[in-house]
């Protein structure tokens, strides 16, 4: 076990629950540190169910293409915890991370605090100590009681599409989930809203107006779509004809448009060249990512494709299925593992019309709360899919290799995606 892992293991034992939505434990610890959340560069706060990470990836790409230094806070990580904290453009170094975690751990003095709370406090401390021009801040879950929601004066807020997710914590209806996400909205901060279901939209609109905010809405106040292989964007400031996003999938045109709209609405220092360069160079691992080289890719013959996506809910699966449907036809093999908080049936439903040649299921390594591979396979077969369990990702890939010129998609969980990247030797940086 590395020193970082040992520290994180200690921190994870400070509270009996992994998730306990509250700000009461964080605020005293932040005060001991001099309230670093009040000493940050301008913050863009992002909540939603899907597309949070992609939206932040675009904003980071646009800003860095424009010569700006950007902090980023994302979760969860795929392979290394360092991925959660990007300081002025670079992932936090391990020595700096360990020293910061131990300083916060000592200051906390063993008091009950959740893992995400204490690590978010650490991130705020690091962000406050390192000069940058902007901080792109992603919520972990929800909004109102999310650990990131101690930032009281963000430059702007973005709420990406809301769908059913984490119902045990956020509510069982879209209205309840939207009300929770709306907690990041702040009086005096501009807001940009992604495409929403009517039920969620009404809640968000009322919450914004109570704070004196007039949001700008996707597909109403701004539009972005693929036209002749280009991204054509339009808002009240005019029309942009831009290159397509480097991230794969039709839904990425929507995500890129949301980020462009936010940049223009928040008056970020990005010109047309910054948008174009950012779209060409944006990266976001395990989001419809082609795997072209590595130890796992070597298990497949030439002519096979290997794709990796960490989407894990019904909305993400629908976007993933649309991406596959837009590609030239090929035999499709799904290799999937899922956590037991997700329903395999819901995830697989959008793939019904794609007629997968085979579904190979996995138990996600090292995750005690993962669905067993045999259970996922049985539930997939009950829905009419051809499915069988595999012992490992290597075994599944060797099985897929026997299907001529297949398109192989590994999906169902960010935890599985991280395991695949690590075993393939392609760790995010």
Automatic annotation (TrEMBL):
Gene3D superfamilies: Mur ligase, C-terminal domain, Mur-like, catalytic domain. Belongs to the folylpolyglutamate synthase family. This is Dihydrofolate synthase/folylpolyglutamate synthase. InterPro entries: Folylpolyglutamate_synth, Folylpolyglutamate_synth_CS, Mur-like_cat_sf, Mur_ligase_C, Mur_ligase_C_dom_sf. Keywords: ATP-binding, Folate biosynthesis, Ligase, Magnesium, Metal-binding, Nucleotide-binding. GO terms for cellular component: cytoplasm. NCBIfam families: folC. It is an enzyme of class 6 (ligase). Coiled coil: none annotated. It catalyses: 10-formyltetrahydrofolyl-(gamma-L-Glu)(n) + L-glutamate + ATP = 10-formyltetrahydrofolyl-(gamma-L-Glu)(n+1) + ADP + phosphate + H(+); 7,8-dihydropteroate + L-glutamate + ATP = 7,8-dihydrofolate + ADP + phosphate + H(+); (6R)-5,10-methylenetetrahydrofolyl-(gamma-L-Glu)(n) + L-glutamate + ATP = (6R)-5,10-methylenetetrahydrofolyl-(gamma-L-Glu)(n+1) + ADP + phosphate + H(+); (6S)-5,6,7,8-tetrahydrofolyl-(gamma-L-Glu)(n) + L-glutamate + ATP = (6S)-5,6,7,8-tetrahydrofolyl-(gamma-L-Glu)(n+1) + ADP + phosphate + H(+). PROSITE patterns: FOLYLPOLYGLU_SYNT_2. Its EC number is 6.3.2.12, 6.3.2.17. It comes from the Bacteria. The keyword Nucleotide-binding applies. GO terms for molecular function: ATP binding; dihydrofolate synthase activity; metal ion binding; tetrahydrofolylpolyglutamate synthase activity. Residues 306-413 form the Mur ligase C-terminal domain. One of its GO terms (biological process) is folic acid biosynthetic process. Functions in two distinct reactions of the de novo folate biosynthetic pathway. Catalyzes the addition of a glutamate residue to dihydropteroate (7,8-dihydropteroate or H2Pte) to form dihydrofolate (7,8-dihydrofolate monoglutamate or H2Pte-Glu). Also catalyzes successive additions of L-glutamate to tetrahydrofolate or 10-formyltetrahydrofolate or 5,10-methylenetetrahydrofolate, leading to folylpolyglutamate derivatives. Pathway: Cofactor biosynthesis; tetrahydrofolylpolyglutamate biosynthesis; Cofactor biosynthesis; tetrahydrofolate biosynthesis; 7,8-dihydrofolate from 2-amino-4-hydroxy-6-hydroxymethyl-7,8-dihydropteridine diphosphate and 4-aminobenzoate: step 2/2. Its cofactor is Mg(2+).
């Amino acid at each position: 076990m590395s020193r970082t892992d040992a520290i994180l293991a200690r921190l994870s034992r400070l509270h009996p629950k992994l998730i306990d939505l509250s700000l009461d434990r964080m605020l005293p610890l932040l005060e001991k540190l001099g309230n670093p959340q009040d000493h940050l560069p301008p913050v863009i706060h992002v909540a939603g169910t899907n597309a949070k990470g992609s939206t932040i990836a675009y904003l980071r790409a646009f800003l860095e293409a424009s010569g700006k230094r950007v902090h980023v806070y994302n979760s969860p990580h795929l392979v290394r915890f360092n991925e959660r904290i990007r300081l002025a453009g670079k992932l936090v170094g391990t020595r700096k991370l360990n020293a910061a975690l131990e300083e916060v751990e000592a200051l906390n003095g063993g008091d009950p605090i959740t893992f995400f709370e204490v690590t978010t406090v650490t991130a705020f401390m690091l962000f406050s100590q390192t000069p940058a021009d902007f901080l792109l801040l992603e919520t972990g879950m929800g909004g109102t009681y999310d650990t990131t929601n101690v930032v009281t004066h963000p430059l702007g807020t973005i709420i990406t599409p809301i769908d059913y997710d984490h119902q045990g914590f956020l509510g069982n209806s879209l209205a309840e989930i939207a009300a929770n996400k709306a907690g990041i909205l702040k009086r005096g901060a501009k807001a940009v809203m992604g495409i929403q279901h009517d039920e969620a939209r009404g809640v968000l609109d009322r919450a914004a107006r109570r704070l004196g905010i007039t949001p700008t809405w996707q597909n109403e106040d701004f539009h972005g779509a693929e036209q002749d292989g280009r991204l054509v964007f339009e808002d009240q400031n005019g029309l942009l004809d831009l290159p397509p996003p480097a991230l794969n999938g039709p839904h990425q045109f929507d995500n890129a448009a949301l980020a462009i709209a936010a940049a223009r609405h928040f008056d970020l220092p990005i010109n047309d060249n910054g948008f174009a360069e950012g779209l060409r160079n944006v990266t976001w691992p395990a989001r419809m990512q082609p795997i072209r080289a590595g130890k796992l890719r070597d298990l497949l013959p030439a002519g096979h494709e290997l794709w990796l996506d960490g989407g894990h809910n019904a909305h993400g699966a629908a976007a993933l299925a649309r991406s596959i449907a837009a590609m030239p036809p090929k035999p499709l093999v799904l290799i999937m593992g899922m956590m037991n908080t997700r329903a395999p049936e819901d995830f697989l439903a959008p793939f019904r019309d794609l007629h997968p040649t085979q579904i190979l299921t996995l138990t996600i390594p090292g995750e005690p709360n993962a669905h067993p591979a045999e259970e996922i396979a049985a539930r997939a077969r009950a829905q009419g899919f051809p499915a069988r369990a595999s012992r490992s990702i290597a075994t599944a890939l060797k099985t897929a290799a026997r299907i001529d010129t297949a398109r192989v998609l590994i999906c169902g969980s960010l935890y599985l995606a991280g395991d695949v990247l690590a075993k393939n030797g392609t760790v995010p940086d």
